[in-house]
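Table 4 source record.
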Amino acid sequence: MKLLISGSRDIVLSVEELDTIINNIYNVDNITEIVSGCAKGIDNTGIEWALKNKIPIKKFIPDWSVGIAAGHIRNRLMGDYTDEAIVIHNGSNGSNGMIKYLDKIKKKCVIIKF
């Protein structure tokens, strides 16, 4: 299963805290790839978690040359690519947009309000 780990940029979690969250929801042996938008905060912690667990990472880096829509474009690409998602957020616009898009395309999204 390809798992998107996403969230608000200003939330700081340790890899151990994220590990607890993931292990309470998923069997880690079923996670074949971590999907990341490579933003600071939760995205980067997800990358660290994947490295620690030796799980491949698919990175979606926004192309900011297209302007402010870059983040939204990246989020749609990640949503289309992933099988499921965890979004840890505090109400940020980007995270809310990711949640809404995943709901629209009927992908499972575990939402953790921080």
